[in-house]
Amino acid sequence: MEGPLADLSSWKTDHCSLVKALEIVGTKSALLILREAFYGTTRFSAFASRVGITETAAARQLRHLTEAGLLHKQPYRDVGGRTRDEYVLTDMGRDLLPVVLGLMQWADKYLQDGGPPLLYVDHDTGAPARVGLRTDEGHPVELDQLGVRLNPAWRRPRPGS
């Protein structure tokens, strides 16, 4: 922590971005629906069955993730059927891939006794794909190298907004 943040007792974590994120994706079913969307699932019934939740719970989570802007409803129609909606990732939803993949890779390392059940690789080369913290220039950043400082461009939201 740098500058005024170095004294942890002198500031609060209000307006924390992690809290805002968890309000959207902080449930098991939300993360599993996102996992399925990354795997290519788009149909309502497939989300419910693959995640292992009731259709009511799937409908609630899909509505929540759609209203939050992570998924977009897109109409489709099977031959001879009625028009229905499928759920596709938005840019906002696709940007969560490193977060979800990072959680999965953490669990692969610490919670899977027999090694990871799936490998994530570059489709063309087969090279392992890993999530990691890097600078804009591509240099790795370890926890002991990470600085946290106030953003001079951030403005506290007005009460009620």
From TrEMBL:
Q: What is this protein called?
A: Helix-turn-helix transcriptional regulator
Q: Which InterPro entries match?
A: HTH_HxlR, WH-like_DNA-bd_sf, WH_DNA-bd_sf
Q: What are the boundaries of the signal sequence?
A: none
* PANTHER family, alphabetized: TRANSCRIPTIONAL REGULATOR, MARR FAMILY (PTHR33204), TRANSCRIPTIONAL REGULATORY PROTEIN (PTHR33204:SF18)
Name the species this protein comes from: Amycolatopsis thermalba
Q: Which domain of life is it from?
A: Bacteria
HTH hxlR-type domain spans which residues? 16-115
Task: Provide this UniProt record's keywords sorted from A to Z.
Answer: DNA-binding, Transcription, Transcription regulation
